[in-house]
């Protein structure tokens, strides 16, 4: 299991960190745990699947 920080997810998706936080709040990206600061950590495979789905339905 490879976990990604909010910043890493934003870079991978090509969006701003605020957008990743909004996606998490809206349960479009589900965090698997939290770091020491309470920031969400996301599973790499889940982020990859979300990106593929988003691209299929019109982009990020």
TrEMBL record:
InterPro entries to which the protein is assigned, alphabetical: DNA-bd_dom_put_sf
Organism: Pseudoalteromonas lipolytica
Protein name stated in the entry: Helix-turn-helix domain-containing protein
Gene3D superfamilies: 1.10.1660.10
